[in-house]
Amino acid sequence: MHAFSFHNPCQIEFGAGQIAKLGSLIPVQARVLVLYGGGSIKRNGAYEQISSALQQHHWQEFSGIEPNPEFETLMRAVQFARKHALDYIVAVGGGSVIDGAKFVAAAVPHDGDCWLIIGNRTPLKTALPLAAVLTLPATGSESNFAAVISRRESNDKLSFKNPLVFPKLAILDPTLTFSLPARQIGNGVVDAFVHTLEQYLTYPNEARVQDRLAEGILQTLIEIGPVTLNEPDNYDARANLMWAANQALYGLVGLGQAQDWATHAMGHELTMLFGLDHARTLAIVLPALWRYRFAAKQAKLAQYGRRVWALTGDDATVAAAAIEATSQFFAQMGLSARLGDYGIDAQEAADGVAAQLIRHQRLKLGENQDLTPDDCRAILLTAA
Ligand code: NZQ
Ligand code: ZN
């Protein structure tokens, strides 16, 4: 196990009706900016609950944060917050709204070019406090310190990480997810599944607790994925999905582990170039990457196959069958592994992603820092 340190300052309030706690957990003198997306919160009851929880507070709202949040939109939110001297952010939505809110929290008090916050190209001195009310279990953004922001004008989808933007508070109410369309539930299950795998599926590393935590999250998602897809108002299934997705990227799974975020790196470029949903890019890339890196990952693939999928046989057989089982699970969640199924030409995707990775200086990906843009091109060509 490699050395690690761990700190997560986010207070989590889990369960039905927990939005009511916002009123007492946010300082009463705070001037609150409520950020949200295209309006789903008006249809699932979150908006009314927030209005009622914040009746003692001064609050104003800014809406229209799009999926894969756009820098230009977020800068309008920054100007709005500055103009009205708002000093506490409540993000209500999925990963896009919460990521966008992290950027706004960092940008409002920032002097200088806010675009440099993305990609960690400028130091941050401070950020506004942030609370997250989660409506889409997938990213884990509600209690981590990462954000992914897009800028169409320059073809960039890049992340930044800073402990200053850890949400102080995360409200996880599974009933808010009842209104999610099947497509977003499938996306959420697959995103959480892949987050877990990218911190786990490398090589054996004597991190036994982390391995078993990962395997527990994966088994939970396999169990509840189809149930929650078919039974939108099954509270227990949605509750377990919400907690599994949170724990997948809360910070514990990857402690002391080698990690391989190449699937996400390629996926972000696919989203930028072709507009594919985040999770759909992962379902395309991950199995193809595993086949390409089969020898290096065989030992851990075999452990995963035996413990998570109960497969039997020698290492090579189990490892190969584990890749197939994973891909089939994604298909069961409604996500294809084929670029062609989304009308995307594999050659165009492979060349485009390789060029973007070079432009973004993502030249050595993977657990051994040896996966080049040429390798990424070759991987995508197998996902036609
Ligand atoms: O905008 P509204 O109307 O709210 O609709 C949203 C949006 O269209 C809808 N939705 C959300 N909650 C709903 C709902 N519809 C009905 N009922 C509800 N309860 O769902 C759509 C997609 O929302 P979005 O926030 O984009 O989805 P997701 O949570 O999958 O977030 C994806 C973004 O997060 C980033 C991705 O790159 C992408 O930009 N990620 C962030 C990470 C992090 N911060 O740690 C890690 C991830 O790997 C990921 O990269
Ligand atoms: Zn993800």
Automatic annotation (TrEMBL):
Residues 10-174 form the Alcohol dehydrogenase iron-type/glycerol dehydrogenase GldA domain. It is an enzyme of class 1 (oxidoreductase). Residues 188-382 form the Fe-containing alcohol dehydrogenase-like C-terminal domain. SUPFAM superfamilies: Dehydroquinate synthase-like. Keywords: Oxidoreductase. The keyword RNA-binding does not apply. Pfam families: ADH_Fe_C (PF25137), Fe-ADH (PF00465). GO terms for molecular function: alcohol dehydrogenase (NADP+) activity; butanol dehydrogenase (NAD+) activity; metal ion binding; methylglyoxal reductase (NADPH) (acetol producing) activity. Its EC number is 1.1.1.1. One of its GO terms (cellular component) is cytosol. It comes from the Bacteria. InterPro entries: ADH_Fe/GldA, ADH_Fe_C, BDH-like. Belongs to the iron-containing alcohol dehydrogenase family. This is Iron-containing alcohol dehydrogenase.
